[in-house]
Amino acid sequence: MGYSMRLCCVLVVLLVACACGEDPYRFFTWNVTYGDIYPLGVKQQGILINGQFPGPQIESVTNDNLIVNVFNSLDEPFLISWNGVLQRRNSWQDGVYGTNCPIQPGQNFTFVLQVKDQIGSYFYYPSLAFHKAAGAYGGFKIASRPGIPVPFPPPAGDFTILAGDWYNRNHTDLRAILDGGSDLPFPDGLIINGHGSNAYTFTVDQGKTYRFRISNVGLTTSINFRIQGHKMTIVEVEGTHTLQNTYDSLDIHLGQTYSVLVTADQPPQDYFIVVTSRFTSQVLNATSILRYSNSGTRAFGPLPGGPTIQIDWSMNQARSLRRNLTASGPRPNPQGSYHYGLINTTRTIVLQNSAPLINGKQRYAVNSVSFIPADTPLKLADYFKIQGVFSLGSISDYPSGGGGYLQTSVMEADFRGYVEVVFQNPEDTVQSWHIDGHSFFVVGMDGGPWSAASRLGYNLRDTISRSTVQVYPRSWTALYMPLDNVGMWNVRSENWARQYLGQQFYLRVYSPANSWRDEYPIPSNALLCGRALGHHIRA
Ligand SMILES: *[C@@H]1O[C@H](CO)[C@@H](O)[C@H](O)[C@H]1NC(C)=O
Ligand SMILES: *[C@@H]1O[C@H](CO)[C@@H](O)[C@H](O)[C@H]1NC(C)=O
Ligand SMILES: *[C@@H]1O[C@H](CO)[C@@H](O)[C@H](O)[C@H]1NC(C)=O
Ligand SMILES: *[C@@H]1O[C@H](CO)[C@@H](O)[C@H](O)[C@H]1NC(C)=O
Ligand SMILES: *[C@@H]1O[C@H](CO)[C@@H](O)[C@H](O)[C@H]1NC(C)=O
Ligand SMILES: *[C@@H]1O[C@H](CO)[C@@H](O)[C@H](O)[C@H]1NC(C)=O
């Protein structure tokens, strides 16, 4: 019996209500290797997946089972994680160091994910050891099931844009800078789908409409995206179908993804697709080409201008993102049928970022705690009841006001709770926060410190839900989040230097029922390491 059959039988036996027998399986075998890449024209050792940078795209449909067998052919331990892909009941597959043992060089691990009840545009990325600076990321699309209405006609084409800042130094050199206690230098440039300027072409037919899914996969900078001579109609943000507003340009913060429709309604020629860095004194740019198939003219003229340091502009744009209440989501019911604003919250958590020096080294912290990984993944320590790996309550619900300290921080949370989370940013740089395993309603953001009175300005009717949100300088952003997914979930800065230097923690969403209805059992192929070695998986 093949792996998939066996797995499916196991699931069918274990999960009485499971429909997985009917949900299709998609198989991926990924070989992760080093290889030469030239994103900014300088030869570098990148991390490739099946020889590709960016890696192969995952194309899936709601409820598909994805079997991704990852072979690590690097000389360093490696893991892949899935930004924004919810993995319901299944933090076992999250692929971050708090949930999975690293895949050792020469070894492999098969991730088994189900994209249950989810649609939208996401990406995967390598989660360990600053590997993200070397590539190994790729697009991840979840299409609606046939028969579930999508609030726009099928586009003539569907393009993925993975853009972000880039360093000519490789990931081991960048890691050495961070390990040495310094912050990263300014990036060397921006890239689009692995290339610097004008090396990538998207070909369209005049008169047709195309979907672009744009992610910021960079390490340290927000970007602005625009297409010369064309307007963009936003249709989806990280799984939410939005009101279809039209923009000339779009700010995309670290780790975020937007879907827009673009109609090729201009004279037939080539146009610049532009990304520029945001909130930086030196403005970086990269371009790709939008080519009409009947084009006779190369792209020309000045690059279309965009915002550079304007914060109010960006905040206003963020507030203009609204949910289309009557459109379907992953299921054929209107997105407005879940009245997120009428549910009483069960707890308020205020998370404040800081940049302390600890033992003379630059670190980054949240509520004064700068996360350090334990010798054993937290999820495994929890499962095998290994004492002393982490303690619950090692990060407080409110800023403590103290300086920074190192700790393996885990916050406890009750399954079925409904929390208000406030990200408070006292620094003068933009932050971007991501919560694994959950999507949350962005109810408000504004300048200054948050207070209870800030709640009067919340959008409790039609905001979007997403998994990555920005917090402007000296500002706050508030969320409502249903704790509907049992597991050990990473909460992190999407600024990769900050994430690497401790601006993250784990949220342990716990159900006392200990039932397979709430959380899948440990996978029989789970890798063991640290103090989990020698324990046995009862399959
Ligand atoms: C991965 O690629 C490397 C380099 O091409 C090759 O030596 C190795 O056999 C491949 N491994 C697998 C599992 O395909
Ligand atoms: C990174 O670059 C340094 C030289 O700057 C080199 O010694 C090192 O081997 C490189 N590492 C990788 C993984 O390419
Ligand atoms: C490694 O790959 C083999 C198939 O080549 C598979 O049978 C095995 O389960 C994989 N190992 C893990 C830990 O997933
Ligand atoms: C909202 O979705 C509905 C249902 O699909 C669609 O008919 C309508 O055009 C959308 N409205 C806007 C403003 O996007
Ligand atoms: C784009 O960046 C290049 C350097 O990479 C620079 O020469 C050029 O002036 C920039 N263009 C704009 C419009 O900022
Ligand atoms: C929320 O709390 C208020 C006041 O405590 C109460 O009156 C109301 O019924 C609650 N609403 C829901 C939906 O539980």
UniProtKB/TrEMBL annotation:
The keyword Signal applies. Residues 31-145, 158-295, 375-512 form the Plastocyanin-like domain. The keyword Signal applies. Keywords: Glycoprotein, Signal. It comes from the Eukaryota. GO terms for molecular function: copper ion binding; oxidoreductase activity. CDD domains: CuRO_1_AAO_like_1, CuRO_3_AAO_like_1. Gene3D superfamilies: Cupredoxins - blue copper proteins. Residues 1-21 form the signal peptide. PANTHER family: MULTI-COPPER OXIDASE, MULTI-COPPER OXIDASE-LIKE PROTEIN. Belongs to the multicopper oxidase family. This is L-ascorbate oxidase.
